[in-house]
Design goal:
Shape: elongated
Strand content: 15-25%
Structural class: alpha+beta
Low-confidence stretches: none
Length: 474
C-alpha cells in the first residue's frame, strides 16, 4: 500500500530583545548559570509581569512577513502545568488571542512553488533550561522568561524535504527582519514536528506523533523520514500508531519514545489576570510595517531585475544575509553588478573559508573590491593582475595603492603599445612568415612577447588587436 505523509510544524523562536518578555532581566546566551534572572523570572510571590514593547514590535514584523492578520488587541493567558523549569507553575502565553492568524509562506520544492498556511503566531515566555544526570537535575534560569513567538503551521507539508524547506524559509525571513538570530544550535529556534501517515486517497488523518526539539534543518528532514518509516512498519505489521511525544536520536537514526499522550488536551488555560488587554494603535502597526527591512524574496527579485543576475547567483547571495549586504555595499561603488557578484560569491567566499574568517569579520572593504573591479573594467589592470590585487585587499589594503606599488598599471595607450608591437614584430620575422602561412598560433606567441617586454602591463585585448592589424600590413 502507498501512504501519504501529513506534516505540521510548531516553531519556537526567541526574539532578539535586550530584556525578557515580562521582566527587566537581560537576555544573554552562554553566561554563567542563573546570573541573568530576577524575582519575576523566579516566580517570587507578589511580583507582577510587565510586557516587553520591543517583543511585541518584533512579533508584528514576523506576522507581517508571514502574511498574517494581526490582532491589535493583545491579550495573554496562563498555561498551567507544573514542571521544574517553570517555578510559577504556569507559563504566560497567548492561547485564545494570538497576535497573528491565517498567514502563508511560499516554499520552493522539486515540483515548483508551494504555499504553506500558517494557523497562528503567538507570543509567550521561554522556560528554564534543565541539565539531567544520574546525580539529579540542575536548572539554569537564565533562559526563563526569554521572549518567544510560536509559529504554528497547518498540516500542509507532505515530505521531510518540504518541511526542511519550510523551516529554512522561516529562518531566513526572521533573520532578515532582525526578529531573531535563529541560531538553532544555541536553541534560539527550535522545531516540534507533528507526523502522521494515511493511505493515498484517504481524507482521514492518521494518528500523529510529535517529534520534539529538533535543532537543525537537516535533522528536521531526517527525523521526519525516520518517523514515517517507523509508522509505515507498524501499520503494515498490523499494529497501531500511538499518540506520543518522541525525540530524534542522531546516532541510531530513529525516533525514541519520551512519553505517551492520553488525549489532545494537555494543559489548562485561563486569562492572565495580571496583564490588562493592550490595544495596539493602527498608526503604530503601520509605522512598523512601513519601516521593515527588505525581505529575501524581494531582494532576490531586485538582483535579477535591476542587477541582471541569474536566478542561481541571486539565490546564493540571498541565502546569506551578511554576504548579500556586502554585495549591496560593493554595488554602491560600481555598475559592474555581474562581475561584482562573481567576485563576492566565488573569490571572496573562498578566501574567507580558506582563512576561516566569518563574513562579519571580513577584512575586505566593499569600496576596495569595487575599485578593483572598476580598474579591470577600465582596462587599467588585467584579470590576472586583479587576482594579485585581491590578495592584498583581503589584507585591508587599497587596490589603487597596491597597483601603484607593484607597478601593475596596465598599458592602454595605443601609441605606446604600437611602439612595443612594432619592436616585437621587427625582432620576430619568422612569426610574421608563420602567420602568413596560416599558423594562427603565431599571434599568441607575439602577444606573449609584447606582454613580456611590457612586464605584463600591456593591455592584452589591445595588444592582440594591434598585432593583427600590423601583421596584415606586412
Amino acid at each position: 500500500m502507498n501512504y501519504e505523509t501529513i506534516i505540521g510544524i510548531e516553531i519556537h523562536c526567541e526574539l532578539k530583545t535586550k530584556t525578557k518578555m515580562f521582566s527587566s532581566a537581560p537576555v544573554a546566551f552562554g553566561e554563567v548559570a542563573n546570573t541573568c534572572t530576577n524575582e519575576i523570572d523566579l516566580g517570587h510571590p507578589g511580583t507582577l509581569p510587565c510586557v516587553n514593547k520591543e517583543a511585541v514590535r518584533l512579533a508584528v514584523k514576523a506576522c507581517t512577513a508571514m502574511n498574517c492578520t494581526i490582532d491589535p488587541l493583545v491579550k495573554f493567558d496562563r498555561k498551567n502545568y507544573y514542571y521544574s523549569d517553570l517555578p510559577k507553575g504556569y507559563q504566560i502565553t497567548q492561547q485564545f488571542h494570538p497576535i497573528g492568524r491565517n498567514g502563508c509562506v511560499t516554499i520552493e520544492t522539486e515540483n515548483g512553488t508551494k504555499d504553506i498556511r500558517i494557523n497562528r503566531i503567538h507570543m509567550e515566555e521561554d522556560t528554564a533550561k534543565q541539565f539531567h544526570s544520574d546525580a539529579g537535575t540542575l536548572i539554569d534560569f537564565n533562559r526563563a522568561g526569554t521572549p518567544l513567538i510560536e509559529i504554528v503551521s497547518e498540516a500542509d507539508m507532505r515530505s521531510g524535504a518540504e518541511a526542511a524547506a519550510y523551516v529554512e524559509k522561516l529562518r531566513t525571513l526572521l533573520y532578515y527582519l532582525g526578529v531573531s538570530d535563529v541560531k538553532m544550535e544555541e536553541g534560539s529556534m527550535r522545531c516540534d514536528v507533528n507526523v502522521s501517515i494515511r493511505p493515498v486517497g484517504s481524507e482521514t488523518f492518521g494518528t500523529k506523533t510529535e517529534v520534539k526539539n529538533l535543532n537543525s534543518i537537516s535533522n528536521v528532514q531526517k527525523a521526519i523520514d525516520a518517523e514515517v518509516e517507523r509508522q509505515i512498519a507498524l501499520v503494515e505489521a498490523g499494529e497501531k500508531v500511538e499518540q506520543a511525544t518522541r525525540r530524534y536520536d542522531e546516532t541510531q537514526k530513529t525516533t525514541i519514545l519520551m512519553r505517551k499522550k492520553e488525549g489532545s488536551v494537555d494543559y489548562k488555560f485561563f486569562p492572565e489576570p495580571n496583564i490588562f488587554p493592550i490595544r495596539l494603535s493602527d498608526a503604530w502597526i503601520k509605522d512598523i510595517q512601513d519601516n521593515m527591512e527588505e525581505l529575501p524574496d524581494a531582494r532576490k527579485a531586485r538582483y535579477m531585475s535591476e542587477n541582471g543576475l541569474s536566478d542561481y547567483d541571486a539565490g546564493v547571495l540571498v541565502a546569506n544575509r551578511e554576504l548579500s549586504d556586502f554585495y549591496d555595499a560593493v554595488c554602491k561603488h560600481t555598475s559592474a553588478f555581474k562581475k561584482a557578484a562573481n567576485w563576492v560569491i566565488v573569490e571572496l567566499s573562498a578566501a574567507l573559508n580558506k582563512a576561516n574568517i566569518k563574513i562579519t569579520d571580513n577584512p575586505c572593504k566593499p569600496k576596495h573590491l569595487a575599485d578593483m573591479i572598476n580598474m579591470v573594467e577600465a582596462g587599467e589592470i588585467s584579470g590576472k593582475q586583479a587576482k594579485v590585487v585581491f590578495e592584498e585587499i583581503m589584507q585591508g589594503k587599497d587596490p589603487k595603492t597596491v597597483v601603484e606599488e607593484k607597478g601593475m598599471k596596465q598599458m592602454s595607450d595605443s601609441s605606446e603599445l604600437l611602439a612595443l608591437v612594432t619592436s616585437v614584430l621587427d625582432a620576430n620575422p619568422q612569426s610574421i612568415e608563420d602567420f602568413k602561412n596560416g599558423k594562427d598560433r603565431a599571434v599568441g606567441f607575439l602577444v606573449g612577447q609584447v606582454m613580456k617586454a611590457s612586464k605584463g602591463q600591456a593591455n592584452p585585448a589591445m595588444t592582440n588587436k594591434l598585432i593583427q592589424e600590423e601583421l596584415k600590413k606586412r
